[in-house]
Amino acid sequence: MTRGMIADGEALALLSGDRLQLLAIEQLSDESRMLGDGVELVNGLEVGADGEVVAYHIHPGRHESGQWAPAVRVDAADVVHLYRPLAPTQLRGTPWFAPALLNANAFDQLTDALLVRARMSAALCAFIRSMEGPQIDLVQELPTLEPGVLARLGAGEDITFNNPTALVENGALASVMVRAVAAGTGLPPHLVDQDLSSANYSSLRAGLQPFRERVDQIRYAVLEPMLARLWERVTLAEPCEWLFPAFAQVDPLKATQSDVAELAAGLTSRRQLVAARGWDIDELNQELAAEGWKPTAPAKNEEPSEDEA
C-alpha cells in the first residue's frame, strides 16, 4: 500500500473480518454528483453534510468486455484509503513523483542527445567528391556515418576527411538536471544518481537529515493512523506503541557518542533513545538482564586519563 501511495498517489484496500484485500486504485470510481440531503459523491467518495467520508463507491470487478463492473457502495468503516494529504478538504492523493516528471523527461532527452553526439564524434570517416562525371542520388544512396567508412559521392579523385567536433563536457548540466529531479521527488541527489564521489560524512548527514525527517512525517502522520486502525479492528486490544525501524547511521560510532552525551546531559531519556532505534525498552531490558549486563554510570568530576586527554 505504501508503494502504491507513492507511485499512484493513493492505495485502496477492503477490510473483511481479519483480512485485508488490496485493490487496484482504478477500482475506485471517479464519478461526482449530488446525492441529496447535503450528501455528495466526489470522485468516488461519498461525503456527508459534515464533510466526513461515509462511504466509497468501488468497482467490484470487470465485465467480459474489459470494462469495470458498476460501482458498489461500501461503508467507510470497511475501506482503508491510504494517501498523503497536502491541503484542507483533500479527498484523493496525487503521485509523489509528478513534480519531477518534466525534469526527468528532459534529463532523458539530454542523455540521448549526448549519446548520439558521442557516437557521431567517434565516427571518423572520409568523403570522396566528384569534380566531373555523373553524381549519385543521395536520396537513394545516402552514405552511413560509421567509423572507417569511405563514403563515395561520385566519380573523381578528390577526398575530404570530416573533422568531428570534440565532445563538449556536459557534466555540469547533467548534475543540475539530476538535482532538479531530486528536488521534485524529495530525495537527496545521491539517492537519485548513486554518485558519492564528492560526498563526505558532513554532506551525507546534512543531505539525509531532512529526508529522514520527511520519512518520519509520513510514518507517524500517515502510516501510524492506518496501522492503529487495523490493530484495533483485528485485535480489539488496547492501543499499542508503533516503533518503526531505525535509520542506518552514516557513522555509527559518532551517533552513539552523541546519544551518550545527550543522555548524560539530561537532554533525552534512555526510553526515547531505544524507541528511536526501533526497539521496545522492556524487551531490551529483559534481554540484557538475561545476559547479565549491568549499566555503568560515569563517575562525576573524574579526571580523564592521559590517553583520553
Quick overview of this protein structure:
The chain contains eight helices and eleven strands. The protein is α+β, with helices and mostly antiparallel strands and 309 residues long. The longest helix has 35 residues, at 201-235.
* Global shape: flat
Helix-strand string: HEEEEEEEEHEEEHHHHHH
Terminal Cα separation, in Å? 53 Å
The chain-level structural class is alpha+beta
Average pLDDT confidence is 81
Cross-sheet strand order for the largest sheet: 3-4-5-6-7
**Low-pLDDT segments, ≥5 res:** none
The amount of helix comes to 25-40%
Descriptive report:
The chain is of the alpha+beta class and 309 residues long. Among the domains are: 2-83, no CATH class; 124-163, no CATH class; 201-290, no CATH class. Helices cover 37% and strands 16% of the residues. It has helices at 2-8, 101-122, 171-185, 189-193, 201-235, 252-264, 270-276, 281-290, and strands at 10-16, 19-23, 33-36, 39-42, 45-47, 53-58, 72-75, 79-83, 126-129, 150-152, 158-161. A 5-stranded antiparallel sheet has the order 3-4-5-6-7, with no helix packed on it. Strands 2-1-8 form a 3-stranded antiparallel sheet. Helix 2 (101-122) packs antiparallel against helix 3 (171-185). The mean pLDDT is 81.
Which key terms come to mind for this protein?
309 residues, alpha+beta, 3-stranded antiparallel beta sheet, 8 helices, 16% strand
